[in-house]
Amino acid sequence: MEHLDTREWLLTNGLGGFASGTICDVHTRTYHGWLFAALEPPGKRTLLLSRFDAELSVGGQVSELNTNFWESGAIAPQGYKLLRSIEIDPLPTWVWGTHQWQLSRQLLLPYGYVSDPINGTARCLNRVLVRYHYQGQAVGVLKLRPLIGDRSFHHQQHDKPPLKFSQLLETRRLLLQARSTQPGTPWQISWTQGDYTPEDCWYWGYRYPEETRRGLGDTEDLFSPGYWVVTLQPGETVTFEAKVRGADDRADERLDDQTFDREWQHEQQRLDQQFAYLRPMKDSSKQHDRLWQRLLRAGDRVYRPSPIDFWTHGDCWISLV
């Protein structure tokens, strides 16, 4: 990329939670982040994970992959210049690279209304999966720093007392919670490989130019509890999961190298079952078929699990959102 491409993407989880950002991977709005959780579906949307800042070291040469706007007017680092491709469908996928290496990142926001067929219960689960895949001529060392918050999706966060963040490190799982005038949201980040180092620090003065244009508050401070260092052989991947914690999380399945693909397959199966009875017209073209499927899936993601939020007409459910 030679220029910043700030066209936007959006993922939703059917509960009111979402992830969003731009093509060039720079955040330009208060509403950009990787995990906005609907804590009281479909309301109380709360930013927990803004993003991972990433740098890759190959053969002693370090490349910073993220791009940020700052209150000073600077744009730094300028990782967008290493972007080689971006695909939104079926999954948002960014690829950075040089002639020596290539690193891809995919995001998956699983459907949030999770049913348990064994006991017949269901629960709401806000989470995001992030997968990095490395290819290169030598070993790559990936350093990732999470930038986090605990604030309404309409407002910015600032480093002011009494706001603090606590962290508790378990085996490949980091428990996080904001502490202010009242306890914040308990949530966690899990990962499949790599070493985590706690290192509390604030990053001050992120600027959101789209908010400047709207005449609204346009700066934010984000907290980072530490960083991961992941050594990747060519062809290896590392997967992260950020999610809101629940009372029964101890029984949750541990994250592994197959989790991302398994969750994506489950999502595809769910969609196939959801719309099995809805078919396009017999004489429609392949282009119309693709559009039909995209419309169905987009409509599915704004479904709210409440009988008062939708009505039915014929054989089609219509969401009132």
Written overview of the protein:
The chain is mainly β and 321 residues long. The chain folds into 2 domains: 267 residues, Beta-galactosidase, Chain A, domain 5 (Distorted Sandwich); 39 residues, no CATH class. Helices cover 11% and strands 49% of the residues. It is built from 3 helices and 22 strands. Strands 1, 2, 3, 4, 5, 14, 18 and 19 form an 8-stranded antiparallel beta sheet that branches. An 8-stranded antiparallel beta sheet has the order 8-9-10-13-20-17-16-15, covered by helices on one side. A hairpin with a 5-residue loop joins strand 6 and strand 7. The longest helix is centred in the C-terminal third of the chain and has 16 residues. The C terminus is likely disordered.
Structural class category: mainly beta
| Helix share bin | 10-25%
Instruction: Look at the structure and give the CATH class of the largest domain.
Output: Mainly Beta
Largest sheet: 8 strands, antiparallel
Number of strands: 22
What is the average per-residue confidence, as pLDDT, rounded to a whole number? Answer: 88
Q: Which term fits the overall shape? A: globular
Query: N-to-C terminal Cα separation, in Å?
Result: 36 Å
As residue ranges, the low-confidence spans are 306-321
- In quaternary terms, these chains amount to single chain
Q: Which radius of gyration do the C-alpha atoms yield? A: 20 Å
Order of helices and strands: EEEEEEEEEEEEEEEEEEHEEHHEE
Primary descriptors:
321 residues, mainly beta, Beta-galactosidase, Chain A, domain 5, 2 domains, eight-stranded antiparallel beta sheet, 3 helices, 11% helix, globular, disordered C terminus
